[in-house]
Write a structure and sequence with these properties.
The chain has a domain of 101 residues. 77% of the residues lie in helices and 0% in strands. The protein is mainly alpha-helical and 156 residues long.
Length: 156
């Protein structure tokens, strides 16, 4: 038979461990945890979206005001006698100042565009979380039904 010493038991073969069968209750609890986590993340994203957008617009407006102030300061500084002597009589004419006007008008478009792109990213993340949440709710309902069926079957 087996090649073992007399009086000893043959070694127990190590086989595959049996997987613990997921009970309906365990699945129900897992889905419930995932649903809570998704709800929490969705709420956080929705709250942060508006504050983030407002802060981006404030920053954009502040940077535009700063840029306008620097531009006007440059016009005044170059037209003063001190800078004229320093830089050898460089004078700004009205035609050269009009070249900078489209920049002043178009400058606010950059932060607004960046804010719109960022808000769109938030919206896509929120939509994805809503789809995940919807699937989890369906899974949760099925898990609850299975659990109730198991409890009813064990009693009756």
């Amino acid at each position: 038979m087996d090649k073992c010493k007399e009086g000893t038991m043959p070694k127990k073969r190590k086989g595959r461990k049996k997987r613990k069968r997921r009970t309906a209750f365990r699945k129900f609890e897992d889905v419930k945890k995932q649903l809570r986590k998704t709800d929490r993340e969705l709420r956080r994203m929705e709250e942060n979206r508006w504050s983030y957008t407002k802060n981006m617009l404030r920053f954009g407006f502040a940077s535009w005001v700063f840029g306008l102030a620097v531009f006007l300061f440059a016009i005044v500084a170059v037209n003063t006698e001190f800078f004229a002597e320093l830089f050898g009589g460089v004078q700004l004419t009205w035609s050269s100042m009009l070249i900078g006007t489209p920049l002043l008008v178009g400058a606010p478009a950059a932060p607004v565009t960046m804010t719109a792109v960022s808000a769109h990213k938030f919206d896509t993340k929120i939509k994805r979380l809503r789809r995940i949440r919807k699937r989890l709710v369906v899974k949760y309902q099925k898990a609850v039904l299975r659990y109730v069926e198991d409890v009813a079957a064990s009693r009756g």
